Amino acid sequence: MRTRPTLSWTPTGDLPPGTTDLGPVADALGAGGVLVLSGAGISTESGIPDYRGEGGSLSRHTPMTYQDFIGGAQARRRYWARSHLGWRTFGRARPNAGHGAVAAFGRHGLLAGVITQNVDGLHQAAGSEPVVELHGSLSRVVCLSCREVSTRRELARRLEEANRGFEPVAAGINPDGDADLTDEQVADFHVVPCTVCGGILKPDVVFFGESVPPQRVEHCRALVREAASLLVLGSSLTVMSGLRFVRQAAEAGKPVFIINRDHTRGDRHAVTRVALPLGTALTSLADRLDVPLDSRTTP
């Protein structure tokens, strides 16, 4: 029997309340050395829904797990059909003011780095560098047999050719780029193999139930060790892949700041949780610190 990965977390009544005071976060950024850890919440203003916030996709959608993906052709057909349709929208998403503010903080030497749990590439599109993609990126595809890496754009072209006339109407798009389609809508979808060896193609992302590569985890742990503080943006920290870095920072005596409208699993490790929309909070922080924003990502 397969064990399903943890997808939800229920807050307890003893968590500290949120605040609207950005002062402590502004002070930390002003001092420099802040490591950013971002989650799906930072991309909602770009039109990509989050998993667990109000109206989050987990209320209607169970993400693909690694075990299901490798377990059978039918699951892969369902995934690629839904993901192919979702990519048409997902691939057109553009960075919002929150992404722009993070990039501006980096340009002004206030950050120790950026780790993102997101697979949308929007931090990089806004100008942040370097960015550690904890869960990989939907812009890349990897063969499970020969490990050849190719671009999602090329796969999209091949899938279009193999599925001419595939134009179903989706009920919604999810943070992993997966569109909500019924089994009937995906029944005739044709999956294409690796062009090198004919093997199974998988998006270069960490599915639920799959482990983050150990070397990537260690790189992130090193960033936490080198940082002065940790700033969590738009993550519920439900899964251990991100929560472990919050725990590491707190255990090392480094202050943890969280900006998230809802409670998170890391609240008890944080100095403060600011319960404000990320775009509003981050642009306000930039204004306080006299950090100019790129006009392409400001409202």
Q: How would you portray this structure in words?
A:
The chain is of the alpha/beta class and 299 residues long. Helix content is 33%, strand content 14%. The chain has ten helices and nine strands. The protein has helices at residues 23-31, 66-71, 73-90, 97-107, 122-126, 152-162, 183-186, 214-226, 240-251, 278-288; strands at residues 34-38, 111-116, 131-133, 136-143, 149-151, 201-205, 229-233, 256-259, 272-274. Strands 3-2-1-7-8-9 form a six-stranded parallel sheet, with helices on both faces. A three-stranded antiparallel sheet has the order 5-4-6. Strand 7, helix 9 and strand 8 (256-259) form a beta-alpha-beta unit. The radius of gyration is 19 Å and the shape is elongated. 46% of the residues are buried. The model is unreliable at 1-5 and 52-60 (pLDDT under 50).
